[in-house]
Amino acid sequence: AVEDSIHFFYLNDLIGFLGGGGGVEEATETATTPTVRFAIFNVAEAWVFSFLPALLSDRRRLPVPAVLFAWLGGLGLTNAFLMPYLALREALASRGEEDESNEARKGGKNPLLGFLFGTTASAVAAYAVVSSLSAPSEQWTEFSELARSDRTYMAFCVDLVLFSVVQPLIIRRAECLEEKDDLPGLYNVPFIGMLAWLLGV
């Protein structure tokens, strides 16, 4: 997990490329680099990263420090922060719910923030996918075994499932949609739907 964190958003790789060195750690042989593991890790990080504009767009969100705390905790790829935040937000919103005009309830994102987060997450995910295509098939098998045998990676995979479940909820709250309101089908697609919402697709 520590090795994965060093390659967060491939920044170490970028530093090494620009500086002609290995960044935080010395460059390793391509054949021994766990490309698949790094790719899945960075796609997951990009997914959580993309949640912030939507969380901030929620008109019934908790105070900004609480939002940032939950989001930063989520970047640690743990649901120990994000899930309790969402549960507390729902509980407080239902208790303090009051009649509001449609205009007052109208949600939406900050276009600039959405663009910056959307393009960044898209670029990281695209690089991760492309890099994983050239990875040896054995690496996929190794990651599968790691997810079954290592509790850290097992929890990591569970988090991805939970992100898929809460993504539509997060977008609904950002748009102030009621349960009876339809959410565009694309926004229900894990991760891709989040990017589409950020980029206004």
UniProtKB/TrEMBL annotation:
The keyword Transcription does not apply. The keyword Oxidoreductase does not apply. Keywords: Membrane, Transmembrane, Transmembrane helix. The chain crosses the membrane at residues 38-56, 68-88, 112-133, 153-171, 183-200. It comes from the Eukaryota. This is Uncharacterized protein. It comes from Trieres chinensis.
